[in-house]
Amino acid sequence: MNMEIVARNSRGESRFTLAVEGSDTVLDILERLRKDGKPGLLYRHSCHHGSCGTCGAMINGKPRLMCLTRASDLGEGIVVIEPLAKMTEIGGIAVWPGPLFDAEPDTDYLKAADDKAEEGAENPVRLEDCIECGVCVAACPVSAPFAGPAALAAAAVEMGKHPGRESELGPLVDGPEGAPACERAFECSRVCPQGVAPGRKITELLKRTQRR
Fold it and tell me: Are residues 77 and 127 in the same domain?
């Protein structure tokens, strides 16, 4: 089938038409266009470097990972690809996810592969499933100043693992830009490609605040 792609940002747009298969991902399609020398295609991805989470984009108005979105998911008609919402545009549809990283607290993301291993054991693995893609931040409807679902979910997990950090993370969690600013839309949980469910973690933070 033929698909019309519109790559759009605040500076303008580029249009492309090409034949695609239903199993092609949006990232596959952009890679093909780039190899064909099409201008105006700047985007980010780290799939070939063993890292996931950098190919987030607004696809027909919804924040998604391009590597997980197939042509068959998008149906008929024009497909509009835009920079991930609430991030800083670099060019094309590429963004710098500075707001996501700036808002996140320092957390312990690693653990030894063997829980009983001595400190300093080799082969650490990620403890949490969050890939820091920013899709939840882009989906969040809160327009007021807000720490965001990724930062608050990270804080919730960190306080659960290290209760001694509650006093340190309390201002982030309980402040006016923390959990109380959440509108409980749960869009963050719906779009999360890893099933992290940040909305549920924010609800837990709100219950904690109410108990205090």
Answer: no
